[in-house]
Amino acid sequence: MKKPFILLLSLFTLANAAAQKPYYGEQKWPEQDTANKFYTVKGERHGVSFFKKHYFKDVEYQPSNKLAFDVYHSPDVMYHWYRKWAAQYPDIVDLYEVARSYEGRPILQMTITNKKTGKHTDKPAAYFEAGRHSGEVTSSEAILWLTQHLLENYGKDASITQLIDTKSIYLRPENNPDGSTMYLFTAQRNRSTVRPKDDDRDGLLDEDPEEDLDGDGVIYQIRKKAVTKSEKEKADYTLDPRDPSGRLMKRVLEGKGDWLVYTEGIDNDGDGKYNEDGIGGLDNHRNYPENWRPDQGGDLTGRGYTQGGAGEYPLSEIETRSTVLWLLAHPNISVVNSMDTRVPMHLRPPSTSKSDESMFPADLAIYKHMDSVGLAFTGYPWAGDVYDTYATRSKTDRTTGDPTKPQPLFGHGPDFGYFYYGSVWYGDELWNGGAMKDYNKDGAYDEYDGLMWDDEANQKNGFKPWTKLMHPELGEVEIGGFHPKFFAQNGPAWQLENWISKQSKFNLAMAKELPQIDLKDVSVKALTNDEYEIKVTWSNAGKLPVALEQAKLVKIVQEDRVTLDFDKALLKGYEEAKVTITQPALFDKTIYSGYTKVGEQKEAIFKVKLNQKGPIKAKVKLSSTRGGYKEKEIVLGN
């Protein structure tokens, strides 16, 4: 009886397996499977790939009837609104999928432009994206807010109406939906994509993630009083004397402290480090091709530069690759902001040198102008380049006391944006960790000020009091600190709209400065012997030139050019053709006009001889890579 039973059991097992579709082959993702209490992350790793789900009070997980910005929104909720708007505003909206993420989620993007006034690729354009870093969800909310603001004010606000009638705005709210979704549905955090990565270079992938030891759904900090000799040699924290309550910790040199501080979790791989190799570890904002450097361990000399999170090679990640390839296919874009959190700063190139060392002076002047525009809207304490301004925004290193100095970032988006793509590209950082004012008048806006503001204005919701916990390895410890998700990295939900609206108004202001080629006049003048002169006059009515100097250097844009388009049959036969363009004398009959500056007016003159009687129709075509495309029909030989 054994063999029939085994055969029957085998057939049952095969049938059951065939009935179960591969989980990631379905459109039902872990966050949508409400019956399952665990969230599973795709990828083969040496650590766990499933985590207990947690729902934060600061997040809306199911769409409501009205979109409000006193709460964060899951990627699914954002996509719900994008699909709804695409159906509601078909004359000005296109919604499409630009790529699939590492786990296979759709990466959606929207184009907003008045379709009746021309194709989106024929207009000057701006591109705004967010969500590249998993936990920096405030940036995605800024894109969502701007999208709603544009759509609801079209036809009501004259400047927004003109913008959408004459320009194209491209919006991508979630460039890394895998990471953002994991962040909002679990206690887990990571930098970007969830692709497994050996962060600590021990040959194992993602083997030491953070753990929610007390089961509250949040990964806080653990502090342990140094007791043993080895602990005292490693101790690098003291109680911050500015806070008599003993909540705030101060980083000091190793061996100079009284405490050890870890993130919540255990040492899964037994290497004496805690949570150093969690889910993923790649950084999509170090994966761009401009000035890319190998990831840690990739410099075999030990004397060169490496860049943590850089990936195996430039654009190794689909999320970054989709952005770059899409932008290169759309060279009509002059302005970009690819946003992050949490340093309140208008952040721009260069990332590996000082501004005046590597930027054209004319381009730097444009960037400095945009810095000032941004500060006027947001009031951020900083605006400037990554290499110098960002790295030295604090004048001294708080641990060593040494003066800070410029530091490079490699494979960085703003450098790709300027040096490779020739655009005005920002990587703005939203939120300030609650440091709303300088409470102790020391000239710095830091964790102390954030703690004081949390006490004063946020009902102490941003900081968990230190609470005793028996750690399975460390013994008695205390767990607490700033809420890592909705205070340290992103603000409490009631602060959200204040930040994203100001940031979005800066993005909108940049879009309103896009170049704009206007065809001012086309005149036709009859000469002798059936010859005609066509004079074309145009100007750049925008506030940006049609090309930055860097864009000219790297040939991302072509010269502005004018052509006359006749029926091809009329031009056949060279000298015997029914229509001959006698000026310009160039074979391609194109007038190349350089790059039109702001406010500059230019003209081009054609001469055409008709070898048959009119009337004959032609189109004047004015093409500018970033200034737009215009055409006008004329008639010769009336």
UniProtKB/TrEMBL annotation:
- Output compositional bias ranges, type Basic and acidic residues: 195-204
Coiled-coil blocks: none
Query: Could you confirm whether the keyword Hydrolase appears in this record?
Result: yes
Instruction: Provide the alphabetized UniProt keywords.
Output: Hydrolase, Metalloprotease, Protease, Signal, Zinc
Region Disordered, residue ranges: 189-213
The signal peptide here is 1-17
Pfam families the UniProt entry points to: Peptidase_M14
Q: Among its keywords, does the record have Protease?
A: yes
Query: Could you tell me which residue ranges the Peptidase M14 domain spans?
Result: 71-370
Instruction: Tell me which cofactor or cofactors this protein depends on.
Output: Zn(2+)
- CDD domains annotated for this entry? M14-like
Family indicated by similarity: Belongs to the peptidase M14 family.
Q: What is this protein called?
A: M14 family metallopeptidase
